[in-house]
Amino acid sequence: MDNKQLAYFLARITLGINLFIHGLVRIPKLEAFANGIIKGFEDSMLPEILVTPIAYAIPFIEGILGIFLLFGVLARKTLIGAAIFMIILIAGSAFKEDWGTVGTQMLYSLYIFFLIFYQEHELRAIFSKKKN
Q1: For 53, which of 64, 107, 122, 125 is 20 to 30 Å away at the CA?
Q2: Whole-Å CA distances, 33 to 54, 83, 98
């Protein structure tokens, strides 16, 4: 394993743990979490009928993306899913005019972008190479 592969692996695991634990700690208090999100959008342009299903889905999406990233399952598709998830979150935060959160979400998006960009360094590439 070279340094690029190690860096990619550790970056993927780090994001996986982050997302997984985000979802894990929110699921037991799902009702309170979702209600907090819904309440936070009361003064935004987004209708509650759109906010509610997303609010309830967020912890599950985070958990699933996190698990997949931790284990490197369908890494490219999972990272694309994470990028789409971040786009949705950024749009929601922008509608709330919560620019601080948008900034944080943009950092997550950049992190995901770099993982996609450098995915060629995925450790599985080691095992797919033919030995001479």
Answers
A1: 107
A2: 11, 22, 18
Domains of the chain, by residue range, sit at 3-123
E strand residue ranges, the chain: none
pLDDT of residue 92: 96
Cα→Cα distances 89→7, 36, 85, 127, Å: 27, 15, 6, 36
Write out 10-41 in H/E/C secondary structure.
HHHHHHHHHHHHHHHHHHHHHHHHHHHHHHHC
Closest CA to 101 of 41, 60, 53: 41
- What pLDDT is attached to residue 2? 84
122: left (phi over 0), alpha (psi -120 to 50) or beta: beta
Give the tens place of pLDDT for each residue, 18-63: 999 999 999 999 999 999 999 999 999 999 999 999 999 999 999 9
